[in-house]
Amino acid sequence: MADKGGHPGGPGRAPEAGRPDKVRNVALVGHSGAGKTTLVEALLAATGTVQRRGRVEDGSTVSDFDEVEVRQQRSVNLALAPLTYGGIKVNLIDTPGYADFVGDLRAGLRAADAALFVISAVDGIDGLTRLLWEECAAVGMPRAVVITKIDQQRGDFDDVVLTCQDVFGEGVLPCYFPVGSGDGLTGLIGLLTQRCLDYSSGERVECDPDPAFLDRIAEQRGALIEGIIQESEDETLMDRYLAGEEIPVKSLIEDLETAVARGSFYPVLATSVPHGDHPGPVIGVLELLEVITQAFPCPLEHGIPPVTAVSGGPPKDVTCDPEGPLVAEVVKTTSDPYVGRISLVRVFSGTLRPDSTVHVSGHGLEDRGHEDHDVDERVGALSSPLGKAQRVISVCRAGDVCAVAKLSRAETGDTLSDPATPLLMAPWTMPDPLLPVAIQARSKADEDKLSQALGRLVAEDPTLRLENNSETRQLVLWCMGEAHADVLIERLRTRYGVEVERADLRVPLRETFGGTARGLGRHVKQSGGHGQYGICHIEVEPLPSGAGFEFVDKIVGGVVPRQFIPSVEKGVRQQMARGVAAGYPLVDIKVTLHDGKAHSVDSSDMAFQAAGALALKDAASKAPVPLLEPVDEISVLVGDDYVGPVMSDLTSRRGRVNGSESIPGGRTLIKAEVPQLEIVRYAIDLRSLSQGTGTFSREFLRYEPLPSHLSEKVAAESRAD
């Protein structure tokens, strides 16, 4: 492809796109360590957007500017890095590659019109990358592949291409292949142009390829051309090619864009960016920019998610038109204690202007602490982020991405629209957080600030669910994994000045009666003046699991006055909530009130409530009171290679495997019943067992008796608390 370079001007200027067809929104996707952030630095430097490339090792990259990212040397946030090349504005969306931060990754895909899968020539494809490819395929996301680190000794470009074709399908075809390997890497050969791009001098020099490569060029070029023209709108092109006609490169490039936009053809590129102990020229970055700007779809070619009125109804006909109705979406929210809330927004339709009023709609995430909300807010300044730098822009048109200040109610996933005609975009799918982490404030001062800080974290991160468990009296963060939890706790400390400590998670158990017993409740007090008098006799029987509570009145002769019988029941219920043995709620019992005594003056509602509670405790002292544990039904989806280890692991957790079924794509769905006590950290353990490819869901099923050896241990711990 021809070099359509051109620097956008001095560093620090925010590029602006006048039309949607002059924008490319590209999400970089791949596992942690594949080289996404390093590649973004090279692209920014190649276009003059930054003066010099930053290094992950130095914490000086544009994308990884968060304190946690600098310290851990890996991305944990979605970051935007716009550049201009050949008159096209490219919004590079650098996404995290670690499974715990899949929420930001999916947000990046939502804002993008194409996904660039970044795969290391050294490490190949991991399980998460496979799953993400399938997710993109499910929504028809156009994709391309760039293989990085082709200069490293263990890097094998050809082997990784074969792996990609095996995993991703036959539509994966290289547009270039490297000349040399390791320290001997000198450049690339373009298959469409049949030209060698030599970088041995430090600059790109175009020349004729070595004759030794001609057979390989012919073979791979033929496969590439056939793959491109299969998607061509010109039905005669294949016949002309098979008849031996030479198809012009310009026509092939135009059809390459069509093929990529349809989401069934995936060009493969190769890059080498010096880093760490690997000096040398930057190879393949200009070629990648050419493919992005000439072959990737613009916003006009990528569909808009379904849009409806806030009140519901049929979908609205919305297109990517700067003159159309405003429809934009908050794909990322960050809160700063000094600057306030900043919203990263993708404008799908219309034009967003500073100081205008927009309608903010958020729906469908009540279970994660996001209340439904509809409110009008005034937009602050618009900016084009370059990492942490905010560069002011005058307007953001359909197809572009910008940052919006001062939207105090906007949260990740919210829709921005015209207040006169409020609209709502269908939300993107977010995974359920399945790792519970109990936390507690370190001091009273921290406790006072904790609620507000957590509210801001929840607004930023839809993969976080906050639970204030009234039974266990614990504050629980439901996270995606251990790394996600660490980042959240670190942000509480560094961003909001709140110190918290982890606590052992308590699973809400239950108590029940193991047999029938009678109990006497005697509450008689006389201390001068009006006394307290209430006596009742009850019988307690166990009920089947899940039956709840039953109260039976068998009083004869008015020994307990009619108005005090509900008082006895109330006292029993109150004691059931407090527990009678280990402090857990008592369930599944039948209580029969059959006798009692009252005093004409001293009996009262409160006296018989106390008597009812005492009677239940007395009965509990005469019968076994076993503990019940909650059991969940879990569905585990894993690759066929991991079915055996996963089933064995479930059995070791006192689980009962109820069956399995094959799922297309070489996976198996396993259904099992497992006690909650055994799956507190299952999100982490399953990832380890399945090399990051396994997923699971859980749903409460019922309570079952806790084994005696565990029951004694839990009861002792409860008494110690």
UniProtKB/TrEMBL annotation:
Domain of life: Bacteria
Keywords from the UniProt entry: Elongation factor, GTP-binding, Nucleotide-binding, Protein biosynthesis
A GO MF term: GTPase activity
GO biological process: ribosome disassembly
Pfam families: EF-G_D2, EFG_C, EFG_III, EFG_IV, GTP_EFTU
SUPFAM superfamilies xrefs: EF-G C-terminal domain-like (SSF54980), P-loop containing nucleoside triphosphate hydrolases (SSF52540), Ribosomal protein S5 domain 2-like (SSF54211), Translation proteins (SSF50447)
Chain intervals for the UniProt region annotation (Disordered): 1-21
Gene3D superfamilies found in the cross-reference section: 3.30.230.10, 3.30.70.240, Elongation Factor G (Translational Gtpase), domain 3, P-loop containing nucleotide triphosphate hydrolases, Translation factors
InterPro entries associated with the record: EF-G-like_DII (IPR053905), EFG_II (IPR041095), EFG_III (IPR009022), EFG_III/V (IPR035647), EFG_IV (IPR047872), EFG_V (IPR035649), EFG_V-like (IPR000640), P-loop_NTPase (IPR027417)
UniProt-listed PROSITE patterns: G_TR_2
Domain Tr-type G: 21-301
Stated name of the protein: Elongation factor G-like protein
Naturally occurring in which organism (per UniProt): Actinomadura viridis
Lineage: Bacteria, Bacillati, Actinomycetota, Actinomycetes, Streptosporangiales
